[in-house]
């Protein structure tokens, strides 16, 4: 019996995604190339093109893998306690953003989306929108359960929750930690509670 081709393919895929994350953090998206990814991953370019149509597609799969997310599928906790569920999500967001390797990767992508609208739209479609929509849906469940005022715009509430976290991360205006995430949540929830 010969080597397992699926295992070999999975190893190659993981090596490509890891190399992509490392390279984009090191050289930025503009200087990232399929050739560079292939070389760093120890695979041929044709292996990458068999699975992805562009370097942006490889990059977003690398980001999705870091965030343990399948494209378009985000599961938020629903314990019945909205505050506990949102606290878990916000703390997880902070932990992901401040992890050094992920921080470099996210900063490289954030810099790129300032000038490349195609990459920005792809980021929103594949990563950001599914996360925001899942969080908004969890808030709507909180509305139906009477934990959130019925007049609340769930999409705006999500922006109020995550906006300060991303602002602090992006501009490095202060400590980004669980205490900050908890403070943001506590303040936003005051405005969301039933009147």
Can you walk through the features of this model?
The protein has about 200 residues and is mainly alpha-helical. It folds into two domains: about 5-55, Homeodomain-like (Arc Repressor Mutant, subunit A); about 80-190, Tetracycline Repressor, domain 2 (Orthogonal Bundle). It contains nine helices and no strands. Helix 1 (about 5-25) packs across helix 2 (about 35-40). The longest helix is centred in the last third of the chain and has 28 residues, at about 115-145. The radius of gyration is 19 Å and the shape is elongated.
How would you describe this structure in keywords?
mainly alpha; Tetracycline Repressor, domain 2; 9 helices; elongated
Short description:
With 195 residues, the chain is an all-alpha fold. It has helices spanning 5-27, 34-41, 45-51, 55-66, 82-98, 100-113, 117-144, 154-171, 178-192. It is built from nine helices and no strands.
Fold blueprint:
Elements (H helix, E strand, L loop, with lengths): L4 H23 L6 H8 L3 H7 L3 H12 L15 H17 L1 H14 L3 H28 L9 H18 L6 H15 L3
Tally of separate domains: 2
Which structural class is indicated by helix and strand composition?
A: mainly alpha
- How many angstroms separate the termini? 68 Å
If classified by CATH, what would the architecture of the largest domain be? Answer: Orthogonal Bundle
- CATH fold name of the largest domain, please? Tetracycline Repressor, domain 2
Total number of helices: 9
Output the radius of gyration: 19 Å
Percent of residues in beta strands?
under 5%
């Amino acid at each position: 019996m010969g080597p397992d081709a699926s295992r070999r393919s999975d190893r190659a895929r993981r090596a490509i995604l890891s190399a992509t994350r490392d390279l984009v953090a090191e050289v930025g998206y503009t200087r990232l190339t399929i050739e560079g990814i292939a070389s760093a991953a120890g695979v041929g370019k044709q292996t990458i093109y068999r699975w992805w149509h562009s370097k942006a597609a490889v990059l977003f799969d690398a980001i999705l893998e870091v965030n343990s997310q399948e494209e378009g599928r985000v599961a938020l906790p629903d314990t019945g306690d909205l505050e506990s569920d949102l606290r878990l999500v916000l703390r997880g967001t902070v932990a992901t953003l401040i992890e050094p390797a992920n921080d470099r990767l996210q900063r490289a992508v954030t810099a790129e989306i300032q000038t490349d609208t195609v990459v920005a739209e792809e980021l929103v479609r594949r990563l950001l929108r599914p996360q925001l929509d899942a969080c908004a849906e969890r808030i709507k469940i909180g509305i139906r359960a009477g934990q959130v005022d019925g007049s609340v715009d769930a999409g705006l509430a999500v922006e109020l929750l995550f906006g300060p976290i991303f602002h602090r991360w992006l501009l490095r205006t202060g400590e980004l930690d669980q205490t900050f995430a908890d403070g943001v949540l506590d303040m936003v929830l005051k405005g969301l509670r039933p009147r």
